[in-house]
C-alpha cells in the first residue's frame, strides 16, 4: 500500500477490497495531526486509561507498550498507534500550554523571534549603569513584550514598532518613572506614546499584548 509523502496517509489502491478500512485509517491520522494536540511530552510509560483520540509525545526511556517509541506520537485509538514525526511538525502541548515543534531529531518549544532594538526619539537614551535599554520581541504565540529603562527625554512617540509587532487596537499601560506612575499607549500603527514620563528615568517594563492577526 502506498502513502502520501507528508503525513503518510494511505492511498486507496485500484480494485482494492474493503476500501473503507483504508479510508478510515486516513481519517484517524488526519484527526490526530491536523490542528493536532497532545496531552504532554514527558511521559515515558503509557497511561492506564487513555480516552479515544488522546495522544502523547513519548518521553525518553519509554517502557511498557511504548518501549522503543521515544519521540514518536502515541495515539490511542482502540489500541496504541505510533506516528513518526517529520521536521517542522507542530503540536499543541496541553500540559505546557504551548506549541511544540519537531526539529528532525527532537521536540522543543517554538523559538521566540529575535530581539528588536528600536531607535529612540525625543531625546531619550538608554539609562545605562547595567540596565537594559528599550527593546521588544514577540514569542511563538504572537505575544509582544516591551521592556527597558531610558532617560533624558520628553513625552510623545518614543519609537515605532515594526509591522507584525503591533496591537489590533490602541492599548494603554501604566509604567513607572522617576516621578511615579506614567502612561504609555501603543497604537495599531506601532507608535509607543509616552504621557507623564520623567527624564530622570522612565521604564517600559510590563508592556505586553497579542499582536494583530
Key attributes of the depicted protein:
single chain, 213 residues, mainly beta, Immunoglobulin-like, 3 domains, four-stranded mixed beta sheet, four-stranded antiparallel beta sheet, 17 strands, DUF2793 domain-containing protein, DUF2793
What does this structure look like?
The chain folds into 3 domains: about 1-35, no CATH class; about 35-110, no CATH class; about 125-210, Immunoglobulin-like, CATH 2.60.40. About 5% of the residues lie in helices and about 30% in strands. The protein has one helix spanning about 20-35, and strands spanning about 35-40, 55, 75, 80-85, 90-95, 100, 105-110, 125, 135-140, 145, 150, 155-160, 170-175, 180-185, 190-195, 200-205, 205-210. The strands form 5 sheets. It has a 4-stranded mixed beta sheet with strand order 1-5-6-7, with no helix packed on it. The protein has a 4-stranded antiparallel beta sheet with strand order 12-15-14-13, with no helix packed on it. The longest helix is centred in the N-terminal third of the chain and has 15 residues, at about 20-35. The relative contact order is 0.11. The mean pLDDT is about 90.
- Report the order of strands and helices: HEEEEEEEEEEEEEEEEE
Percentage of β-strand residues: 25-35%
Q: What CATH architecture label of the largest domain applies? A: Sandwich
Largest sheet: 4 strands, mixed
The computed structural class is mainly beta
Strand order of the largest sheet: 1-5-6-7
CATH class of the largest domain: Mainly Beta
Spans of at least 5 consecutive residues whose pLDDT stays below 50 are: none
Mean pLDDT: 89
Number of domains as seen in the coordinates? 3
Radius of gyration: 25 Å
End-to-end C-alpha gap = 41 Å
Number of strands: 17
* CATH fold annotation of the largest domain: Immunoglobulin-like
Which percent bin holds the helix content?
Answer: under 10%
**Count of runs of 4 or more consecutive helical residues:** 1
Outline: elongated
Amino acid at each position: 500500500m502506498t502513502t502520501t509523502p507528508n503525513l503518510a496517509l494511505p492511498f486507496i489502491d485500484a480494485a482494492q477490497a474493503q476500501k473503507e478500512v483504508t479510508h478510515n485509517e486516513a481519517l484517524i491520522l488526519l484527526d490526530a495531526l491536523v490542528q493536532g494536540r497532545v496531552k504532554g511530552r514527558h511521559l515515558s510509560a503509557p497511561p492506564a486509561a487513555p480516552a479515544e483520540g488522546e495522544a502523547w509525545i513519548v518521553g525518553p526511556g519509554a517502557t511498557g507498550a511504548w518501549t522503543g517509541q521515544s519521540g514518536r506520537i502515541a495515539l490511542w485509538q482502540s489500541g496504541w498507534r505510533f506516528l513518526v514525526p517529520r521536521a517542522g511538525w507542530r503540536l499543541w502541548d496541553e500540559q505546557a500550554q504551548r506549541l511544540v515543534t519537531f526539529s528532525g531529531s527532537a521536540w522543543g518549544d517554538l523559538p521566540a523571534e529575535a530581539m528588536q532594538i528600536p531607535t529612540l526619539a525625543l531625546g531619550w537614551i538608554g539609562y545605562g549603569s547595567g540596565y537594559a535599554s528599550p527593546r521588544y520581541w514577540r514569542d511563538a504565540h504572537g505575544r509582544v513584550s516591551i521592556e527597558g529603562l531610558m532617560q533624558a527625554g520628553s513625552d510623545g512617540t518614543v519609537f515605532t514598532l515594526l509591522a507584525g509587532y503591533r496591537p489590533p487596537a490602541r492599548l494603554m499601560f501604566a509604567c513607572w518613572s522617576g516621578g511615579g506612575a506614567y502612561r504609555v499607549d501603543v497604537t495599531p500603527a506601532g507608535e509607543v506614546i509616552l504621557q507623564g514620563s520623567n527624564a530622570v528615568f522612565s521604564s517600559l517594563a510590563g508592556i505586553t499584548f497579542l499582536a494583530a492577526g
